[in-house]
Structures are given as structure tokens and as C-alpha cells.
Write a structure and sequence with these properties.
By secondary structure, the chain is mostly helical. It has 21 helices and 6 strands. The protein folds into 3 domains: 111 residues, Fumarase C, Chain B, domain 1; 255 residues, Fumarase C, Chain A, domain 2; 96 residues, Orthogonal Bundle (Ribonucleotide Reductase Protein R1, domain 1). It has a two-stranded antiparallel ribbon with strand order 1-2. The chain has a two-stranded antiparallel sheet with strand order 3-6. A hairpin with a 2-residue loop joins strand 1 and strand 2. Helix 8 packs parallel to helix 14. The longest helix is centred in the N-terminal third of the chain and has 37 residues. Bound molecules: arginine. Arginine binds next to helix 8. The site of arginine (ARG) has 10 residues, from helix 8.
């Protein structure tokens, strides 16, 4: 099959080239084997461009129709897996354009009027990424919903809250889950902001300086859905910037890296919590693997891999941002290197979010309409752990403050009480009233309510606090927000 004017790479550009490219250089410079992934965006961009060229009478109605029918054929060929992607044709853009010309002749050759691969590729990447951001937004919502379900079931379940990984104060497991809901809701906000800046049209910038054809850039923007909330077309306003900057891709990867960091923090907790020493939770067997030598093992491979893959996405961020730093205006071929890290970031993030939503919240059983197989919580183990480490010491100090002691003095008094409890190897709540009163005579019988885990939990009834009241209010707020 011959692709006429693009047939041999040495002749693709012009008669200017006197020798063909070596196979090694062809392979080195070609991107088709990864950028063919942009084919849908490439066709959509070309169709919007052709529609505008016809409306502006730059190409004829007949040529426009031929381009449309040729593109329909190409779409069908690619979908059916019959399209003959050729390394000789370097990238997705030249492959599709060459096939179009082969199918519809001169009309195909007219498509590139007023356009360059420089504004074409920038448009394709933006269109493709916009679609992926929308999918990621939906996955982030699913994950938040899964966390909310777990939170709702565990509002009254107490676990030790840690600072410095030392037992600090008792908290609600629901409250702990909601901390991640907050993180992922901000990840969602960040994605939406990146989407807004991604959704702008480079086409019309041509190679770098704009074009002498009377293109209607706003028309193209509208037909590609590159509009703001008011439906106003969003067009890149400087041709040099439009073809050369990849800040939207960098921003997206930064937002993704941060989201993966949140996943990684959660992974670290899941790994700790399911270890024998904690025994707080179990995750379904299908997210774990055994050991080839130790028959007793169930390893948390999925959270461990997510923690590992976070490094990979952070690496992509470093790669992309470094790619940009030395580039003079305008387009440079360096930019072709934006694709693989970007694609891998999208794939890694999407897979991770999907797996985590299921691992946390379970999978819907269509027969019962109930989600099954999410994380299971061992409330006794959590509560037992919360009873270690004098988690209610702050509550005793607060109790003394209410009796009139300055907080610093109360803090000191309780330190002595904790020391005594450690010496006797008992919890604060197990010290007899007479012993407690030696530290401060204002202590009365009602102190035992204050020293209990539940008393401590319910006392933190402040906006953003861990009291079950507050946790329930937050769950309601999040559910309303997520719709
Ligand atoms: N494959 C190229 C890329 O990904 C397309 C743009 C090529 N432009 C050029 N002037 N060589 O960036």
C-alpha cells in the first residue's frame, strides 16, 4: 500500500532532502507507536478545522464533504484494527493525513491549509487530556463515595489517633476516613482547574506565528467544546505560546502526583493496619497475594504497589517539568517527549483510583444491590489499641482546667498522674479516685466519664472535630456535595 506524497520519509517534506533517514533515526524520531493513541482527538480536530475552512470558503463544500467521508472511513479502519500504522510516516498526524489523501485525493492535501503539526499536536493533546480529566473526576467521586460508606458504618468505632505514630487521642474511624475524603475532594478541585486551562484552542497558531488565511479560530473552539462556563470560546491568544508551552500537561501531572501521594499515605496506613501488630482491618483476598515460601502470609500487594507507583508519577512530573525548562520559543521536537509520561500518568492514576474505590468500598452485587468485599474493620482491636498509651490524658488536663487550673499547670499535674499509671502498669481510668485526688483534690467521681474513650470522643464536638455528631454532619455535607 502506498501513501503517495509521504511515501518515503526522505521525500515527505520536500525535494530539499538529498538522502533518506537511516532506520535508527527513523525509529528514534518517530512517535506513531505511542501517539496513535491520540487518533480520536486528531480526527476531531481535523474535522473542526475542515468545517471552518469550508465556512470561510478556504476550501470548497465538495472538498469538505470528501474530508468528512474519508475521515469516517479512517475512523472505521482504526476501530476495526485494520489501519496500517506506518513508522515511515512518523506520527499519528502524518499517518492519518496520508491515508486521507490516499482515500480522497486532493481534498486530503487541502486539509492542512493554515495548519501545522505544531498547533495540531498541541490541540490533540489538550482534547485528549480533557476527556481523561473528566474520567478521573468521575473516579475520584467514586472513591470518595466508597470512603463515605465506610465512614458512615464506623462513626462510633474508636481507634487511636496518632501523632509521630505514637498514640495521641482517641478518634472516630469514620473521622479518619473523612480526612481522605477531604484530600480527594481537593484533588478533584485541582483537576477541574487544570481542565479549565487545558480546554483552550491552539489551532490557528499554525507553525508559530499564526497564518495568513482568514481562519475563524473561535468557531473551531466552539465546535470542539473549548468554551468556558458561559459558553464563550477559549482560544490561545498568542501563537508562540500556543504551540510551545506544555504547562497544562505539567499542571495535570502535578495534580496527579499529589493525588497519588494521598493514595500513598492511605496505602501506608492500610499496610500498617492489616499487619499482625495492628490487626485493625482486613482487605479482600483478591487484593493480596501469598508468599512462595511462607504459607501463612497474605501480603498487601495492591496498597504496596500504589505506594510504589506514586514514585513513578512523581518521576513523570520531574520529567515533564525538566523537558520544558531549556526550550526557547517556539515549538521544539523535545515536546514530542511529553506524551509517554503523560499517558502513563493517566493510566496509572485511573487504574489506582478504580482499584482503591473497590478495595475500600467493595463491589456492587447486582443480585442484592449491596456492595460487598470492601475493607472489614476489627473494632475490638482498634479500641484495645486506643486504650494503650494514655490517649485520654489531654481530657484529664481539660477537666482540671474546667475546675479552674491554668492549662500549663493541669498539663504538669496530668504528667505526674500518667507517670504513676505507668509505674502501676494501669490505664489512667484504672487509678482509684483516692490516688487521682492526690494529684489534685478537685478531682471527683465524674472524672471517669472524662477518662473513657467514648467520653473523650464525644467531647470533641467542634466543627471539624472527631465527635460522632460532627462526623455525621460532615458525611451529610459530603453526600450533598457529591450529589
Ligand atoms: N510528533 C510531533 C510531536 O509530538 C508533532 C509535531 C511535529 N512538529 C514538527 N515541527 N516536527 O510534537
Amino acid at each position: 500500500m502506498s501513501h503517495n506524497q509521504f511515501d518515503k520519509k526522505s521525500q515527505a517534506w520536500s525535494a530539499l532532502f538529498s538522502e533518506p533517514m537511516s532506520d535508527l533515526v527513523k525509529r528514534y524520531t518517530a512517535s506513531v507507536f505511542f501517539d496513535k493513541r491520540l487518533w480520536q482527538a486528531d480526527i476531531a480536530g481535523s474535522l473542526a478545522h475542515a468545517d471552518m475552512l469550508a465556512a470561510q470558503k478556504i476550501i470548497s463544500i465538495e472538498d469538505h464533504k470528501s474530508i468528512q467521508s474519508g475521515m469516517a472511513t479512517i475512523r472505521a479502519e482504526i476501530e476495526a484494527g485494520h489501519f496500517d500504522w506506518q513508522l515511515d510516516l512518523e506520527d499519528v498526524h502524518l499517518n492519518i493525513e496520508a491515508r486521507l489523501t490516499q482515500l480522497v485525493g486532493l481534498a486530503g492535501k487541502r486539509l492542512h491549509t493554515g495548519r501545522s503539526r505544531n498547533d495540531q499536536v498541541a490541540t490533540d493533546v489538550r482534547l485528549w487530556l480533557r476527556g481523561e480529566i473528566d474520567l478521573i473526576g468521575a473516579l475520584l467521586t467514586d472513591l470518595q463515595m466508597a470512603l463515605l460508606d465506610v465512614a458512615e458504618k464506623n462513626v462510633e468505632v474508636i481507634l487511636p489517633g496518632f501523632t509521630h505514630l505514637q498514640v495521641a487521642q482517641p478518634i472516630s474511624f469514620g473521622h479518619h476516613m473523612l480526612a481522605y475524603v477531604e484530600m480527594f475532594s481537593r484533588d478533584c478541585e485541582r483537576m477541574l482547574e487544570v481542565r479549565r486551562r487545558t480546554n483552550r484552542l491552539p489551532l490557528g497558531a499554525a507553525a508559530l506565528a499564526g497564518t495568513s488565511y482568514p481562519l475563524d479560530r473561535e468557531r473551531v473552539a466552539v465546535s470542539l467544546g473549548m468554551v468556558d462556563d458561559q459558553g464563550q470560546p477559549q482560544v490561545c491568544q498568542n501563537s508562540l505560546d500556543a504551540v510551545s508551552d506544555r504547562d497544562f500537561a505539567i499542571e495535570f501531572t502535578a495534580a496527579s502526583a499529589l493525588c497519588m501521594v494521598h493514595i500513598s499515605r492511605m496505602s501506608e496506613e492500610l499496610i500498617l493496619w492489616m499487619s499482625q501488630n495492628f490487626g485493625f482491618i482486613k482487605i479482600a483476598d483478591r487484593f493480596t497475594t501469598g508468599s512462595s515460601i511462607m504459607p501463612q502470609k497474605k501480603n498487601p500487594d495492591v496498597p504496596e504497589l500504589a505506594r510504589g507507583k506514586t514514585g513513578r508519577v512523581v518521576g513523570h512530573l520531574m520529567g515533564l517539568i525538566t523537558l520544558m525548562k531549556g526550550q526557547p520559543l517556539a515549538y521544539n521536537k523535545d515536546n514530542q517527549e511529553d506524551k509517554e509520561p503523560l499517558f502513563d500518568t493517566v493510566d496509572t492514576l485511573k487504574d489506582t483510583l478504580r482499584i482503591f474505590a473497590e478495595m475500600i468500598g467493595g463491589q456492587l452485587n447486582p443480585a442484592t444491590g449491596v456492595k460487598e468485599g470492601g475493607i472489614t474493620v476489627n473494632l475490638e482491636a482498634m479500641e484495645r489499641a486506643a486504650l494503650k498509651g494514655y490517649a485520654t490524658a489531654t481530657d484529664l488536663a481539660d477537666y482540671l482546667v474546667k475546675k479552674g487550673l491554668p492549662f500549663r499547670d493541669a498539663h504538669e499535674t496530668v504528667a505526674h498522674a500518667v507517670k504513676a499509671a505507668i509505674t502501676h502498669q494501669v490505664d489512667l481510668a484504672e487509678l482509684p479516685l483516692s490516688v487521682l485526688r492526690e494529684f489534685n483534690p478537685s478531682i471527683e467521681k465524674d472524672v471517669y466519664e472524662v477518662l473513657s474513650l467514648r467520653g473523650s470522643l464525644h467531647a470533641r464536638d467542634i466543627l471539624g472535630g472527631t465527635a460522632p455528631n460532627q462526623v455525621r454532619m460532615q458525611i451529610t455535607r459530603h453526600r450533598a456535595r457529591l450529589g
